[in-house]
Amino acid sequence: MDLRGTRFILSRDELLTLPEFVLLSLFPNGLFPEGHMGGFAEGDAVQVDYDPASLQYMLDFFRNVAQSIPNESSPSASPDGGAVPIDSLGGRGEDGSKRAGIIVLREDLDFYVIPPRSDINQVEMIEVKRAAARALLRQDGIFSGLKRSDEPGTTEAHLIEMLTAGGFNHDDRWGHRAGEPNKAVVCSLALARLRSDIRGNEMGNNAVGMAQKLLLFWRKPARRCWWEGVDLKDVEGVDGPLKVWIRRVWTLEMSVIGLR
0.90 exceeded by the pTM? Predict the structure, then answer.
């Protein structure tokens, strides 16, 4: 594959360990059947419009987790037939040490800048948008965008509780965060290995229940969207706060690697 000038050579087995929403982005028409290149000659690279640094971050994380699994064969996707029990992933089942769950969280942030003054021209506005993108990139806390709506009982609070029970921490930062070329979009990706140490305390049962809910997202990505208006401070070239409308789309999916 050629991702914006960066070449990747991946086996089909390794591709199949990646989340469904990533595969759909890489291959919108579906993966080629084994041995069929769909008109491409052997050695040709499939051109894909996808951030190569984001894919590399994901591959490195998945490979590190796979290497920690005591299994002589190469890592592959978990077999069909539903979610893998948390006991098995947590090391209490027969194959507990041979499988691992990975939480995959992606944020697509579209932003719309309100002109800071009425007489601004197009060239100046483009520079303001670029400066706004840089300011948003600095806000790299995973849950910082949800802090305003994380009151107990809300969907956002439940989501944060589930993710922190499963493998993230409240103060975690995005593993990869970058702007999309020629777009007012910031894409972020965070990965966490599903916790296997959620036991032995009074909140253990609740935490295990939360982790089990994450397994419902195995091969079934879920999305949620938020809109909010923010005042960005310290934006280069802008006097005072800059009014920006933000649309966040979160995609959550579970991946399981281990034995076939």
Answer: no
Residue 5: which region, alpha, beta or left (left: phi > 0; alpha: psi -120 to 50)? Answer: left
200 sits in the region (left: phi over 0; alpha: psi -120 to 50; else beta) called left
**DSSP symbols for 107-129:** EEEEEEEPPSSTT--HHHHHHHH
Tell which residue, 123, 66, 115, 108, has the closest CA to residue 255. Answer: 66
Query: pLDDT confidence of 32, banded at 50, 70, 90?
Result: low
- Supply angle C-alpha 97, 211, 104, rounded to 5: 85
3-state secondary structure of 255: strand
CB atoms closer than 10 angstroms to residue 259: 13
SS3 state of residue 173: strand
Distance CA 144, CA 172 (A): 10
